[in-house]
Amino acid sequence: MRFFLISDNVDTEVGMRLVGIDGVVVHEKDAFLNALEDALQDPNIAIILVTTKLVELAPQIISEIKLTESRKLIVEIPDRHGTTNIGEAIDQYVSEAIGVKL
C-alpha cells in the first residue's frame, strides 16, 4: 500500500516526490475529480493526500468519499501557499458533527 498526492502546487509535488510519494498537479475541478477517481480505483493506493485548495473545490464530494470509502484514506494537507488554518477547519468539522461549538 502506498501514498498518492493530488496537488495544485508543483513545489508540494516535488517535495513529496523527494520522499518517495508519487502524485499529480491539477488546477481545475474537473481535472481534480478525474485524478481523485483514478486514485480511488488504484488498488495499490491506500492514502490519498490532497492539498487544501483542491479540497475547497469540491468539499461535499470529499466529505462523502471520506464517509463512504472504507479502503482509502483521504488526508487534507496544507501547502506553503495555503492560508487556511487546519486547526480551525478541524474545529469546524467537529462542531458540525456533534452540534456543539468548541
TrEMBL record:
The keyword Transport applies. It holds the Pfam family ATP-synt_F. Keywords: Ion transport, Transport. The keyword Transport applies. Belongs to the V-ATPase F subunit family. This is V-type ATP synthase subunit F. It comes from Paracholeplasma manati.
